[in-house]
Amino acid sequence: MLPQEIIRHKRDGLALSTEEVAFFVKGIADGSIGEAQIGAFAMAVYFNDMNDEERIGLTLGIRDSGEVLDWSGMGLNGPVVDKHSTGGVGDLVSLVLGPWVAACGAHVPMISGRGLGHTGGTLDKLESIPGYNIVPSNADFRRLVRDVGVAIIGQTGSLATADKRLYGVRDVTATVESIPLIVASILGKKLACGLDALVMDVKMGSGAFMPTASASRELAEAIVTVANGAGTPTSALLTDMSQVLASCAGNAVEVAEAIAMLKGDIRQGRLYEVTEALAVEMLLAGRLADDESDARGKLYGALNSGQAAERFERMVAGLGGPVDILTSFERRLPRAPIIKPVLADAAGYVVDMDTRDIGMVVVGLGGGRRRSDDVIDHSVGLTAIAGIGDKIEVGTPLATIHARSEDDFARAAEQLRRAMILGEQQEEAPHMIYDVIRQREAE
Ligand code: URA
Asked: pTM value?
């Protein structure tokens, strides 16, 4: 088989055979196919799409291009389940969800990423905790997943190796925005973790990765079809990202809010609603609950008994962080030198916000990255961010800014005022869960 023939077929709108897709991915992984050919292939897929069979083949090829984790023989007493999100602003769900479902009997080997652009990254948030090591030995990772039930760590070089090369080429050839390539990239990495089930959180709204609601839905449906076709039971929730999910955005500030929720101090609101809905879906997918109300009862019990918080503390300690993070976090997490509210200069109701711009306010403060090699400041960010529907008077705080300098504060304050849209009529806050997409029963 010749790579240029496979590219020609895709260029001409033909469906590739399973063998052709497997050959091409193998060539990406072993370096026998050059970057020009990878770029041409990605562009041909971008314009001509792939059918479900091709998408499944590409996903399986990426999954199998590196190590595939195998949990059999570990003596686990529960299912291996994970969640993946398309990313957002103030989306600290993973920090709470992993320990919470682990406390209900799941094993969660969560391999997460860093933030880039307007969205935050789970690893950056966890690295606010002094000592937390995102690259433990394989043995420590496996032991934590077995004994604590959860370990949130960074991508190891050995998983889904073809994705790194393919994504690198897509990034510089304007071919990231292609549903079949996104699906195979996300799922290739996730399915390499040896999961019994996966739940996807696909965001919709001004802070979402996908540009429109219909594109978010298309991605969610494609992920459910391809993952199930590849043999991993998967469902997807379409959730709201038209405003910041938590009441804060940044790194250390998000860890503090996650701990507050794990300790039971936050029992309602946007973050709680989305995290609980994803946790319910994970317990159902892992067959750890009979139905939704059983799942909610188990989750409530794990939060009330302190077991969810305890799992978080054990995970942090097991990965090199403090052994007492639940009680010591306020003094251990880094604090910005300037912490001041930004006051509204007009009155009205918050009717909308440019969530992407709010994410970029955090980047501007130094809490995120414009380029993948940027160093970030874990202490900066926003807290007490106003939400859609809130009544604002002149002088009402729109948020509290945590900044490194007065200049940074002033710049962030101006950007934040612009990103919050005020109107005269109070708008209802958007729904948080738009839909749950599960595999269709065989007809
Ligand atoms: N996230 C990924 O991991 N891959 C993509 O292609 C897009 C988002």
From this structure: 0.96
